[in-house]
């Protein structure tokens, strides 16, 4: 009786081993391809930096206490500095050298969105800033004219001038009759022309281009020999 049980146990074990071998073989065939290069498997992701221009060479005379990075990329959803807020910030630095004296980028390009509310807060007096048709911007603010406070709505073009974000009005509305608005427009035009310095970024960056989007002004800034950290 004991021999019969041992025999049955051996037969069962052999069957389990055979079944396990079949399962392993099926799994191997499923996940592998033929050795002669049949259907290609998934294409591997390109390495980080693929397609980017080759980095320049480290500067001559790099000290032992310095670290050189060919390029450095920073993405941030929000940056708050110098009492100002920037959103969707992307900074790309090239030839970045770190040392006990600080961090310096030979070249730095920054794309960032300046929210409308940040510019409006800088203007003060309950000002409002929003996008308008045709890539323009609308500014609503209170300005003093001939001893009176006027609530003015001005819509105009947006561009970068001398490193500043400039909104220059093309149409001005003070809420009165057309002839009154036309007569007053020349007086208030300079009061509703906005020249805004983008804050919260390293010194030396210069505004190159600006565009209006739904949530703010999209700015592109560039500079050379920019000190990123003390």
| Separation, N- and C-terminal Cα atoms | 88 Å
- How many strands appear in the DSSP assignment? 10
Percent of residues in beta strands: over 45%
User: Main beta sheet, described?
Assistant: 5 strands, antiparallel
Mean of residue pLDDT values: 78
Strand order of the largest sheet: 1-2-3-10-9
Q: Percent of residues in helical segments?
A: 10-25%
Number of helices: 3
Could you say which overall geometry the principal axes of the C-alpha atoms support? elongated
C-alpha-based Rg, rounded: 33 Å
Order of helices and strands: HEEEHEEEEHEEE
Uncertain segments: 9-52
Overview of this protein structure:
- With 230 residues, the chain is an alpha+beta fold.
- The protein has three helices and ten strands, in the order H-E-E-E-H-E-E-E-E-H-E-E-E.
- It has helices at 2-31, 116-123, 178-192, and strands at residues 67-81, 84-99, 102-115, 128-132, 136-145, 148-161, 164-173, 194-196, 206-213, 216-229.
- The strands form two sheets. It has a five-stranded antiparallel β-sheet.
- Strand 6 and strand 7 (164-173) form a beta hairpin.
- The protein is elongated, with a radius of gyration of 33 Å.
- Mean pLDDT is 78; it is low at 9-52.
């Amino acid at each position: 009786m004991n021999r019969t049980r041992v025999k049955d146990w051996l037969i069962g074990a052999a069957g389990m081993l055979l079944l396990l071998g079949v399962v392993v073989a099926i799994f191997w065939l499923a996940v592998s391809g033929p050795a002669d290069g049949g259907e290609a498997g998934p294409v591997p992701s390109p390495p980080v930096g693929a397609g980017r221009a080759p980095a320049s060479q480290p500067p001559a005379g790099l000290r032992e206490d310095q670290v050189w990075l060919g390029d450095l990329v920073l993405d941030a959803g929000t940056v708050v500095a110098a009492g100002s807020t920037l959103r969707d910030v992307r900074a790309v630095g090239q030839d970045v050298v770190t040392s006990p004296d600080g961090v310096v980028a030979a070249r730095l390009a920054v794309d960032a969105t300046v929210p409308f509310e940040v510019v409006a807060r800088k203007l003060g007096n309950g000002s409002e800033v929003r996008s308008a048709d045709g890539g323009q911007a609308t500014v609503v603010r209170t300005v003093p004219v001939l001893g009176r406070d006027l609530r003015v709505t001005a819509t105009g073009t947006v561009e970068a001038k001398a490193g500043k974000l400039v909104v220059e009005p093309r149409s001005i509305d003070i809420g009165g009759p057309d002839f009154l608005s036309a007569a007053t427009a020349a007086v208030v035009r300079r009061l509703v022309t906005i020249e805004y310095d983008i804050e919260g970024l390293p010194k030396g960056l210069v505004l190159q281009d600006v565009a209006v989007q739904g949530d703010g002004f999209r700015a592109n800034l560039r500079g050379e020999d920019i000190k990123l950290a003390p």
